[in-house]
Amino acid sequence: MKKFERQSSLLANVRKCVQNYNMIEEGDTVAVGVSGGKDSMALVCALALMRSFYPINYKIKAISVDLGFENMDFSPVKEFCRSLDVDHITVSTNISDVIFNAKKEKSPCSLCSKMRRGALHREAEKIGCTKVALGHNKEDVSVTLMLNILYAGKIEVFCPKNTPDERGMTLIRPLIYTSEKVIKDFCCRNNISIIKNACPMDKNTEREHIKKIIEVLDKEHRGVIHRIFRSVEKSEIDGFINPDKKNMDIKDEV
Question: How many domains does the chain have?
Answer without folding.
Answer: 1
